Amino acid sequence: MGMGRTITLSISLSLLFFFLVLFSGHNVEARPSFACDPKDSATKNLAFCKSNLPIPDRVRDFIGRLTLQEKVKLLVNGASAVPRLGVKGYEWWSEALHGVSDVGPGTKFGGDFPGATSFPQVITTAASFNASLWEEIGRVVSDEARAMYNGGMAGLTFWSPNVNIFRDPRWGRGQETPGEDPVLAGKYAASYVRGLQGTDGGDRLKVAACCKHYTAYDLDNWSGVDRFHFNAKVSKQDIVDTFDIPFRSCVMEGKVASVMCSYNQVNGVPACADPKLLRETVRGAWRLNGYIVSDCDSVGVFYDNQHYTTTPEEAAADAIKAGLDLDCGPFLAIHTENAVQRGLLKEDDINVALGNTVAVQMRLGMFDGEPSAQPYGNLGSKDVCTPVHQELALEAARQGIVLLKNHGLSLPLSPRRHRTVAVIGPNSDVTVTMIGNYAGVACGYTTPLQGIGKYTRTIHQQGCANVACANEALFGGAIDAARQADATILVMGLDQSIEAEFRDRAGLLLPGRQQELISKVAMASRGPTILVLMSGGPIDVSFAKNDPKIGAIVWAGYPGQAGGAAIADVLFGTHNPGGNLPMTWYPQEYLTNLPMTTMDMRSDPSRGYPGRTYRFYKGHVVYPFGHGMSYTNFVHTIADAPTVVSVPVNGHHHTNTTISSKVIRVTHARCSRLSISLHVDVRNAGSRDGTHTLLVYSSPPAGHWAPHKQLVAFEKVHVPARGQQRVSVKIHVCKYLSVVDRAGIRRIPMGEHALHIGDVRHSVSLQAATLGIIKS
């Protein structure tokens, strides 16, 4: 409280932490072999232990040596040991959503590993629109994960990332996702997975990632409906057009080693018991090279809660026959043997499931003997929480922060002109709030108060005891501080008490009396008032957007362990903000008569249904998807782009009578190298260097079942002040300029497609290269 320069200890504490770890005996005793210990004469010469043999041969040999009783105990996350074959027990469940986490039982902190680098929550990192950053974060997280595995503190199978679509703004877990756009989510999925799993070892894995939760899962606990009982009624069109896209990208482009099925039913069938989803789509059409795991206790849930089967044995059989390989939970270990004995399941079905899980363990090197002799075996505690890793966490936070409003150039602040700053709000001096959920133990923290104190003298008042802000008891001190200071920074918003797993929001307004505090402080403030918001989901801050006394609004998401330093760097102009919203910020009235349980993406004016996400909702917004300001101005010019593109067709194209344009099934087009190349000049018209996100949207000519616009490409470009950079953009025609009809068939509309880049519009006409017509 009161005046006085806040001393920032974060960097020195982080370095102290690093050196304590570095010199505290990081040469830990080597982790014992999981299997195939070279000192074990009974097993070292068995075929499954011979790393020079093909993995399928090794897998067959290992499974062929197991009894049925041993097999069923390997179908669960807490897989049992097989001592007679020299195989130890293994915990499959570890998490690494935005840093190594101890949420799952497979990972723990302590000893030589007191913490790990905690990056911003995914929704924040997604706002960077920077695919190379996402992959680099994955590389760092997997370095630390391997180090902890080598030290006996973690597994190698990490059930991350969460790539569900942020469909409804109330969803408590939206913060874990890359946002509402399927192209953005798919690109994030593939990039982060490549970083985690490694790209330099052929079929070998650094760690095994997992894309979750498949599919149409985006409701936890809303208005008496929870995820354990929810039946998501989803059209084929929306499945193909929206919900499948991130998972398809994760599997086919990211080459992920695992997919997790969700708790909910999809059109009456539990996701973890649906062969169309698991066996036919994930494993069949997308060719998953890995295993499918249930969300925790999902098999038990569809028996006990959803009453999908009459007996537990039927539930076990249905799950495995549908394509489930591993159960997070004990259900399959308890009931699968009886399912075989009752003739509901064949032992060969179990062999297939085990073949998928064991193959992943072998690709991880777990059957190759002692870890220190393998790739990544040199990683240890010296490689966790390094200064380089912590600097990347800071840079990720900077890149994810979004400048929403900057009236009259209120920002950046100046330490020379703003010598005393009031720092107010329930999130002004928080630590764990900044790392969101599915987090671990951070290396150290820089709070917003500490970060701002690095630049100028601070007066700190919370204003509210917590984000619930139930009363005005602390308002007086906050108002007095604003009257004294040269500038006022309010750090407000949400935390996990408001939005979290199994905690969906009731509405979009700030909790309690936060809005009242903000308005009263802004009215009293002697200098500019800056509103900084921490949240995972969007907030209706229309009052602040329209209040001339609030000069600027900044969204920081949940910015990770270095969040306070990143916020301060943006506020004081050391970093020029370049983030963009990965989700629409709706007004509160958007939720009027809009149940979370209604899954339809497309609007339907006949029943007053507004549609979801920027792709289908055309109504009023507080801030649109992709919005983000800078301290400079960027100007786009299309330097080179085609106006007509021929689409080669395999002898046919199809006229759909419901729309005026001709459309071609993607399966009839020759898609392999069919892309549009654009060259866009981005000029920085301002006096500050800046990084700009080039967002390219397409509006197709098709009828009302197509999105009114769709993100088709994005690129990050750094442009010096008064400088210019040319950016090359490739748009794959079949993938990004196609639309999905009501039957779930992807088609390419012929005719004029409008490409939008900022204020610039360019038309490209797609024309079929053949004239034959086929009805399909």
Automatic annotation (TrEMBL):
Residues 692-761 form the Fibronectin type III-like domain. SUPFAM superfamilies: (Trans)glycosidases, Beta-D-glucan exohydrolase, C-terminal domain. The keyword Hydrolase applies. Residues 1-30 form the signal peptide. InterPro entries: BXL, Fn3-like, GH, Glyco_hydro_3_C, Glyco_hydro_3_C_sf, Glyco_hydro_3_N, Glyco_hydro_3_N_sf, Ig-like_fold. GO terms for molecular function: hydrolase activity, hydrolyzing O-glycosyl compounds. It is found in: Secreted. It comes from Forsythia ovata. Keywords: Glycoprotein, Glycosidase, Hydrolase, Secreted, Signal. The keyword Protein biosynthesis does not apply. It holds the Pfam family Fn3-like. GO terms for cellular component: extracellular region. This is Beta-D-xylosidase 2.
